[in-house]
Amino acid sequence: MPVKADAKGKTYPPHEYEVGLEKIREYARAVGEDNPVHFDRERAKAAGFRDVPAPPMFAVVYSAGAVGPAVLDPEVGINFAMMVHGGQEFAWGEPVCAGDTITTEASVKDIYERGGMGFYVFESVSRNQDGQEVVRGTWTNIVRGV
Amino acid sequence: MSVKVELKVTPDRFLPHRYAGASGDFNPIHIDAEFAKQVGLPSNILHGLYSMAQVARACTQAAGGDPRSLRRLSVQFRGMGVPEQEITVSGEARESRDGVAVVALTAEQGGKKIIKNAEAELREL
Question: Which residue among A38, A84, A87 sits closest to B75, beta carbon to beta carbon?
C-alpha cells in the first residue's frame, strides 16, 4: 500500500517562543557545553553577542512547539508505533540570545516511500523579533513497514 | 583550514532525565527503563538529538569554541545510544572553500555507529 501523500505542502500556524537565560543555561549544562559565553552575560557581550547566546542545537527547544503539531497531524497520518527519527538538519543564521522572541513556522516538505518505508519530511523556519532567520530545520521521520 | 574533530563523552545514568527536562522531550523510552524494555529496547535510550548536540559541540570546539562557527549540520540517526557508555565523535574536513570547511562526521558507542553520514559546515572566525 503506497503512503498517503495528500498532506505534502501543508503549513501550520506560527509558534512563538520567548528565550530565557536560565533555559539556555539549563540546556547548555544538559548537553555538556562548557564555553562560558553560554552562561555568563559579561563574557557573552565581550565576545560580541547581544546577550547570552543559546548553543546551536537549542534550535530543537524553540522549534518543537511548531514541529510537534505537524508530526502529530492526523492528516499526515504517521503510524507512531513504527516511527523512528531518521535524520535531522539545521542551517543556522543570526544567533539566538536570551531575551529573543523566536517565531517558527512548520510545513510538510515531502512524503514518499522507498524500500517499503515511509519518509515524512518536515521543514521549520525560525525568525527572531527583528525578522532575521535564525535557523532552518529539516526533520525526517521514517516509518517502517508501510 | 584543516579541521580534525574528536570528542569523547560518557553520559551518566540520569543524563536522559536532565536532557528531557532541558529539551521538553519526555518520551518514556528515554526516561523509563521498564517502559523501554516492554517495547523491546535494552533499557531507556539516549535522545537522538542529545547525540546530535554532541556532534555539534565537537564541531564548535574544533573551530575554537565560538557557536557562530557552526553554519550547518545534518545527521542520520542509526541504532540507539545508551547512558553510561562512552560516545566518540570523530570527523575530518572533506574540503575547504572561502573559509568554510565541510566536515564529515560520525558518532559511535561500543563499536556501533549511532550517528552516520553527518556533515557540518564550519566557518573560520
Answer: A87
